[in-house]
């Protein structure tokens, strides 16, 4: 199938997080998908090594989701999200609370990961206000953390370059990231680095806990190149937050719904936060949706503080919060995750993936490999002072040989579809070896 895209069309679309000039000179056009594969405009099958953008873990084009979405569109295409409801939003909320860690029983719907972290941090700040502690406003993120592209996300997010281009936004401070040279080539969770959680004490000494609303971290960083938490690190962070009356938010936009071998990384790593942010995999990437899962106590505090019953307790939300079509897609996604036992499959097959990906140790330019569940990150040595050039070249070679992977900074990232077969993992790793060895 030849691409129908015109030069005018190429010029008109300002693509997000994309090197527009390079793409438009050499477009990579995706026209179809099936299972773990994309189909490009030349009819080639391309293995989807990042499950879309960590979105489509169950593989693509499940007919059950298409049917559910079609049915929903013909029954109820939209219902107002404010002051009115539709049954599927409540049904989905109930289903989600059966999957979340204990106590996270209140579901607030959003449409993206950025909205999820904005929502969780707003809920955290106003929670302290309704509790009579209005000075607790600062959000603590972590270096290298990605929490979305909104003003909030780029503030408590710790992506290098954001402040260089956007300047300051909301008040935030940052823990150090958890990667240390001693962890290089760790398989799964690094053994060292738990003490980095104690850096929170330094930030508390600086800002005082009376001014800090919440700590937000990805339990496992994805966009930074898959940085796996050191053993004991998240437990220590939880202890410190509880001791100092600071809410702990886990951004599980990438890890939620299966990536680490459980529904949530909170369960895999055995640490329960006060809120979880989710999106992406909640509808298998089919319809934009996200959800913030909130501890009962926080919800109850809002209810208790709002006065008369007709008062709105949390003046926040989006036109498309809990959209009926998104709810239909999410309910079917949950059915399919369960029916096909995708999540136990991730847990069962991740040791094979771990072994396979670590065979790239020793390949030229590879300076670190990290992995957990169906995720892995590979760091590549910089060339001529440019961290991004080799990962870019490697990813382009892989695209040419039929594999889609993500490249960002000096890393290549993998987030395999949960349906990946063992021989597909091996083929991907072989192709990566070839691509890495072919760049100068
Ligand atoms: C951990 C994390 N949080 C938030 C986001 C932002 O999600 P969205 O792009 O849907 O706004 C992302 C996106 O990759 C993410 O990885």
Automatic annotation (TrEMBL):
Essential cofactor(s): pyridoxal 5'-phosphate
Transferase among keywords: yes
PROSITE patterns (UniProt xref): AA_TRANSFER_CLASS_3
Keywords for this protein: Aminotransferase, Pyridoxal phosphate, Transferase
Lineage top rank: taxon: Bacteria
GO MF term list: transaminase activity
Cleaved signal peptide residues: none
SUPFAM superfamilies attached to this UniProt entry: PLP-dependent transferases (SSF53383)
Entry's transmembrane regions: none
Family: Belongs to the class-III pyridoxal-phosphate-dependent aminotransferase family.
Protein name: Aspartate aminotransferase family protein
Source species of the chain: Vibrio olivae
């Amino acid at each position: 199938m030849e691409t129908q895209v015109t030069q005018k069309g190429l010029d008109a679309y300002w693509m997000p997080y994309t090197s527009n000039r390079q793409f438009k000179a050499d477009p990579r056009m995706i026209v179809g998908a099936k299972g773990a594969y994309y189909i490009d405009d030349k009819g080639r099958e391309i293995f989807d090594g990042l499950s879309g953008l960590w979105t489509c873990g169950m593989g693509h084009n499940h007919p059950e989701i298409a049917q559910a979405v079609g049915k929903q569109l013909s029954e109820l295409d939209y219902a107002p999200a404010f002051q009115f409801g539709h049954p599927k939003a409540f049904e989905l909320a109930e289903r989600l609370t059966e999957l979340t860690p204990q106590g996270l029983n209140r579901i607030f719907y959003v449409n993206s990961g950025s909205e999820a972290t904005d929502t969780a941090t707003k809920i955290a700040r106003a929670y302290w206000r309704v509790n009579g502690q209005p000075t607790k406003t600062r959000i603590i993120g972590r270096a290298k953390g990605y929490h979305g592209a909104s003003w909030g996300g780029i503030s408590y997010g710790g992506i290098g370059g954001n402040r260089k281009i956007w300047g300051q936004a909301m008040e935030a401070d940052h823990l150090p990231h958890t990667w240390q040279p001693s962890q290089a080539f760790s398989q799964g969770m690094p053994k060292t680095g738990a003490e980095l959680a104690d850096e929170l004490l330094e930030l508390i000494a600086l800002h005082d806990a009376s001014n800090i609303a919440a700590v937000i971290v990805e339990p496992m960083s994805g966009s930074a190149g898959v940085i796996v938490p050191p053993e004991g690190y998240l437990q220590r962070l939880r202890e410190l937050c509880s001791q100092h009356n600071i809410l702990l938010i886990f951004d599980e936009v990438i890890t939620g719904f299966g990536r680490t071998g459980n529904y949530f990384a909170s369960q895999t790593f055995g640490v329960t936060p006060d809120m979880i942010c989710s999106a992406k995999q909640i509808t298998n990437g089919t319809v934009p949706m996200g959800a913030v899962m909130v501890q009962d106590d926080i919800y109850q505090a809002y209810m208790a503080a709002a006065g008369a019953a007709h008062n709105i307790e949390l003046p926040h939300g989006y036109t498309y919060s809990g959209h009926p079509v998104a709810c239909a897609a999410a309910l079917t996604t949950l059915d399919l995750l369960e029916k096909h036992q995708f999540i136990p499959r991730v847990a069962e097959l991740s040791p094979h993936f771990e072994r396979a990906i670590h065979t790239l140790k020793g390949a030229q330019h590879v300076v670190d490999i990290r992995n957990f569940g169906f995720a892995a990150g590979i760091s590549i040595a910089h060339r001529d002072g440019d961290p991004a050039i080799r990962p870019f070249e490697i990813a382009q070679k892989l695209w040419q040989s039929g594999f889609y992977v993500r490249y960002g900074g000096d890393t290549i990232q993998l987030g395999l579809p949960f349906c990946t077969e063992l021989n597909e993992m091996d083929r991907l790793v072989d192709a990566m070896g070839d691509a890495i060895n072919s760049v100068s």
